[in-house]
Each structure stands twice: as structure tokens, then as C-alpha cells.
Design a protein that fits this description.
Radius of gyration: 14 Å
Strand content: under 5%
Number of helices: 3
Helix content: 40-55%
Number of strands: 0
Structural class: mainly alpha
Largest sheet: none
Shape: globular
Order of helices and strands: HHH
Mean pLDDT: 82
Distance between the termini: 33 Å
Length: 89
Amino acid sequence: MADMSDVKLETAPTSKRFPTTNQAKACYMYYNSYHQCKYDYSEEEPQCAKLRGWAMSMCPIEWVENWEKQREAGTYPGPVPGEGTKAAH
């Protein structure tokens, strides 16, 4: 698991797509967007760092830790960057 001590937590900007009563959908979207950005560019990309900060500020740490374990085990149920690029035989 990556060291989270370097993450600057700040609230993500408001979005009409997500009502303020439940931020679970936004949390999940930002988490997956961060991993896609990291795959497309690098972890040091400023936009990727921003997405990571938003995800970490919105998602319960238990969720993130569980999702990271699932990614490492190959059992993450969400979109996995690069997964669709392999040819099926």
C-alpha cells in the first residue's frame, strides 16, 4: 500500500452529477479516474495528484485500503486501466 502521508487532503469541487447527500459515487469515480490517469501519464502528473487527493478526501480509508488489496490480488471489480488492451485467444 502506498504511503498516504504525502497526500494533501482537500475537498473536490462540487458537481451537479452527485447530490451532496451521498458521495459514494463521486468517491468511486475519482478513485478510478486517478488510477486511469496514473496509467495514462504518471503518478507525478499534477492532474493525477489532484484526482488522488479528491479520492482520498471523499473515500473512507477502509474502502481505499480494500480496493488497493483487491487491485494487488487481481480481484478489483471496477475498471482496471490497460485490462482491455490484451487480445483474447
